[in-house]
């Protein structure tokens, strides 16, 4: 694919980007996806423990390879949004349109954060942190007529996201590259909307992650983080119960996740950076139908044969899907949204 190999200048980007999958980033991570120290109340204790624990590149490489391998099959069966759908609690979803529910997840997140629909105030520059194959970016770029830049660790995802943007006539509005959310390739204060849809759970250093989100937000800009958290700990609890931690560890191992934190840990981090209008929501009930639907799709002939062809990491991911359901049902896993605003200067 000669056309995919040359560098192009891109109007919405700082310099150039590659249509072909660029080389893997050389960044390193302070913790490993393979080590799971028990949860402590203090996030800094978490981070120290994580930093002390072993191999720095394992997690990043695992994430990149996992998404390199599994994004094609996901797109084939579910389309370009690699995140949960949003449903009315208790609704009958047997015949639900799950793709519509994924769009609703985006819309509800924008609504929760109070993003203006008014053309004068709506976001014009957006960053999609952990962009997958760019479903959110293209949707937001169209909705707001905004420019959107996405970053992912997966070269395959970045290449596919750019190809879809080109095919949909959005190449002058959106673009994607391989980069680390913990060291974003953007100057300070660039974006009116900082969007992280189900990528925070992959971040081994939550304080640094939040700091980077805040750094790239423009004054007055909004930050939206939709992410998997563990439940908040009770006042007398130092950590999750051993059985809870064991359940999360099995999920971490299959999905390349480091240690989890709670929704209130995120709130504290944003508070510590003096963010305003901090709001957190628990949407666990709203996403309940999602994993059963994914499991059903994996059990169709198309799903099953694609899965077998996709590779070991994807199969391993599929095998732990019931544990996500168990985690939600037992109250260990929370599907959280946290939104806030950077003070205007
Ligand atoms: N937000 C997308 C994709 C969610 S999947 C969507 O809703 O469709 C999680 C994404 O987070 C993947 O694209 C993965 O590459 C990305 N990710 C995980 N850790 C990352 C990191 N440190 N830096 C950048 N992207 C990361």
UniProtKB/TrEMBL annotation:
InterPro entries: Methyltransf_11 (IPR013216), PiNMT-like (IPR025774), SAM-dependent_MTases_sf (IPR029063). GO terms for molecular function: S-adenosylmethionine-dependent methyltransferase activity. GO terms for biological process: methylation. The keyword Transferase applies. Residues 26-35 have a biased composition (Low complexity). Residues 216-225 are annotated as: SAM motif III. Residues 126-135 are annotated as: SAM motif I. Residues 127-225 form the Methyltransferase type domain. Signal peptide: none annotated. PANTHER family: MAGNESIUM PROTOPORPHYRIN IX METHYLTRANSFERASE, CHLOROPLASTIC-RELATED, METHYLTRANSFERASE. This is Methyltransferase type 11 domain-containing protein. It comes from Gossypium anomalum. The lineage of its organism: Eukaryota, Viridiplantae, Streptophyta, Embryophyta, Tracheophyta.
